[in-house]
Amino acid sequence: GHENNSLAKSPMEESNLSANTVMDHPRAITDKIALIRDAGPSKFQVIADFDATLTRYRVNGLRGQTSHGLLQQGNAYYDAKRQALYDHYHPLEISPVIPVDEKTKLMEEWWSKTHELLIEGGLTYEAIKKSVADSSIAFREGVTELFEFLEKKEIPVLIFSAGLADVIEEVLRQNLHRTFKNVKIVSNRMVFNDDGQLVSFKGKLIHVLNKNEHALDMAAPLHDRLGVATGEEDEENANMKKRTNVLLMGDHLGDLGMSDGLNYETRISIGFLNDNIEKSLESYREAFDLVYLNDAPMWGALELVSQLFSTEA
Ligand code: TMP
Fold it and tell me: What is the average pLDDT score of the chain?
């Protein structure tokens, strides 16, 4: 029938299932939904990767930019140097043959060198704003609605990225046209001097292979640009750790490690498979509860959290 009562359906049936959705164990998800719903919104949080998870993989037919990729220092020499690092290290990042400990060292090298170039080249906050304004980066459809729903339910969203926190904040500001007090960013955070020039990075470097370490220790409020740790923040982080039910969203298998900092009870995972679909589908559907293909919008995720915490439930 077409009765307009989504609660009567088994949770993931109908509207969520489309050519862009792959799900191996609908029963398991239904069970998890029941557990998470019973525990309530105060036990729940969302942990999401940024690039190609919240943002689109393709924008106007071309590969969308990442928080690193969009950055133009306003200094061609330094932009070229960072690009040269990308050309050297990115193939190593995606190489299937380099052992993980070796690759970790290489990624540390890459991120440190890039950060040094950003400092040396005198990156300003103004350049970040302009880069974001000029960038080809776009959120998946439905991200605003998802964040709004979660904000209403006072459910925190942790955006976890090996990119650049300050750039991600600016992308949120410019592309979602507002800030969300429930959204926190765990990423590489810049420290600017009074002239608005980058002088250092705060805390431990986060690269693609150590994202899972110290996850929740590093959460800093969206508005806290200088990243000064406060007692309040520690308390907030402790609260996050009590939210042991999780919706995790990522575009790489490694993103599943984003909840490692949390001794989670029930986790529903969504994987966005953007590239190499034929080769990777099998491993993605094994690893994630739900897999979305082809730059699918966030409506499935919104429907899921609505089912978890709809007012009628
Ligand atoms: P993530 O957003 O999925 O956590 O990963 C960050 C990506 O940023 C990673 O795939 C490599 C990329 N990157 C650049 O494009 N330029 C850089 O200078 C650095 C350090 C990383």
Answer: 87
- For residue 192, the CA-to-ligand 1 centroid distance in Å is 21
* Predicted ipTM of the assembly: 0.94
Distances (CA, A) of 130 to 171, 190, 195: 11, 17, 17
What does the pLDDT look like over 83-129, one tens digit per residue? 999 999 999 998 889 999 999 999 999 999 999 999 999 999 999 99
Q: Which of 31, 38, 51, 195 is catalytic?
A: 51
Does 23 score more than 80 pLDDT? no
pTM of the entire structure? 0.87
Q: What pLDDT shows up at residue 111? A: 97
Confidence class for position 187, pLDDT limits 50, 70, 90: very high
Q: Which atom of ligand 1 is nearest to the CA of 206?
A: 4
How many angstroms separate the CA atoms of 313 and 37, rounded? 8
Q: 21-23 and 290-293 as β-strands: parallel, antiparallel, unpaired?
A: antiparallel
Q: Of residues 24, 31, 38, 49, which has the active-site annotation?
A: 49
Write down the H helix ranges in the chain.
Answer: 26-39, 76-93, 100-120, 125-134, 143-152, 165-176, 231-242, 277-287, 299-309
Provide the token pair at 155: 């459910």
Active site residue 289: no
Exposed / middle / buried, residue 227 (Cβ in 10 Å: 0-12, 13-18, 19+): middle
49 is catalytic: yes
What number of H helices and E strands is found in the chain?
9, 11
Position in ligand 1 atom list of the atom nearest CA 51:
2
Binding-site residues, ligand 1, Cβ < 6 A:
49-51, 66, 68-69, 82, 85-86, 93, 110-111, 114, 161-163, 208
Task: Write out pLDDT tens, residues 191-236.
Answer: 999 999 999 999 889 999 888 775 665 554 444 433 445 566 667 7
Q: From the CA of 103, how far away is ligand 1's center (Å)?
A: 14
Nearest to 71 by CA among 159, 204, 202, 188: 188
